[in-house]
Structure formats: structure tokens, C-alpha cells
């Protein structure tokens, strides 16, 4: 699990508390009213922060809503950058995600399913997520070999598809310990499917 170091100064601790309040309140408000039906001002009023304070912390309403998603993929990219890349790349991608999931704490496992449901219920947020996913996939390709090879892009697409299938199976119950197991299974199934013959 992730060990979060407490900021040293009072100012930094206050910024962290404000950030956490924005994240938690956003998930609650967006969950109750719908992401598309909740203006940013409603969130700011609830947390009692100014627009200036908000935009020093987040780029947009979408950005705060997707905090859990971005936290996972930022961790994944960090792990992938440092991991030894030998053997089948599909195994490397899987190992990096399993390590990233190990680094997520209980709070993340609480917020992540709420975020996934927000995305499913909001066309605007879903579109934003697709664009973000494309950016992440491009970063993965650069980390692996700096090229834009078709084979690599296809493999990344297959891995992301396996990840989404694992999430689909996980979402009804959202038991934290089950997600790695489901991901291993969907990746194994993906590999078997790729070797199917007519």
C-alpha cells in the first residue's frame, strides 16, 4: 500500500487538506447530482474555496473527477519506467499494473469505483477519459522503445482492453483484493484469444 508522507509545512498541509476536500466533495456531489448537471461553482461553494484556489490545484472539473484514475496511471507509468523490460511485453505490462495496484491505498480503492461509475454515467466525462487514455497509451509506447510501431500500439490496445474487461467484472462488488486476480485472468484469456485458430 502507498505510504503518504505528511507535508513538512503548515501551508503544504493546508493545501493537501484542500485538495482532499475537493476530491471527496466532488465525488459526492457528482455522484448525487450527476457530473454533467453539477456546475463547478457548486463544488467551490461546498468546499468554500475560490476559483483561483481550485485552478491552482486542478486543471478542470474533469480533472478533479478523474483523480483516482490519474493517480493509478501516473503510478503505472512510474513503475513501467523503472521496471526491467525483458521477456514478452504483455507480461511486462501486466507486472507493472499489478505493482501499481499494490501501491494504491484503501482510500484509492474507495474512490476508484465511484469514479468509474461517474464516467459510465457522463458522456462528457467518458469522452475526456478516452482522450486521457490515448495520452497514456502514447506515453507507454515512448517508455517502452520511443517508437510508434504498429505492433506495439496494438499490444497496448489489447492490454488496455484486458484491463477494462477486468474492471467490468470487478465493478459489481469492488473487492480490493480481487482486482489483481481478475486482471491476471483477463490477460491470460487475451493471450489465449490472440492465439486462436480458424
Multimeric state: single chain
Assign the CATH topology of the largest domain.
Tetracycline Repressor, domain 2
Helix content: over 70%
Q: What's the architecture of the largest domain in CATH terms? A: Orthogonal Bundle
Rg on CA atoms, Å: 18 Å
What amount of the residues lies in strands? under 5%
- DSSP summary, beta strand count: 0
What is the CATH first-level class name of the largest domain? Answer: Mainly Alpha
Mean pLDDT: 91
The total of helices stands at: 10
The total tally of domains equals 2
Contiguous runs where pLDDT drops below 50 for at least 5 residues? none
Helix/strand/pairing category: mainly alpha
Main sheet attributes: strand count, strand direction, barrel closure: none
Order of helices and strands: HHHHHHHHHH
Shape: globular
N-C termini distance: 44 Å
Explain this structure to me?
This protein is an all-alpha fold. The protein folds into 2 domains: 51 residues, Arc Repressor Mutant, subunit A; 129 residues, Tetracycline Repressor, domain 2, CATH 1.10.357. It is 76% helix and 0% strand. Helix 5 crosses helix 6 and helix 5 runs parallel beside helix 8. The chain is globular, with a radius of gyration of 18 Å. The model has no long low-confidence stretch (mean pLDDT 91).
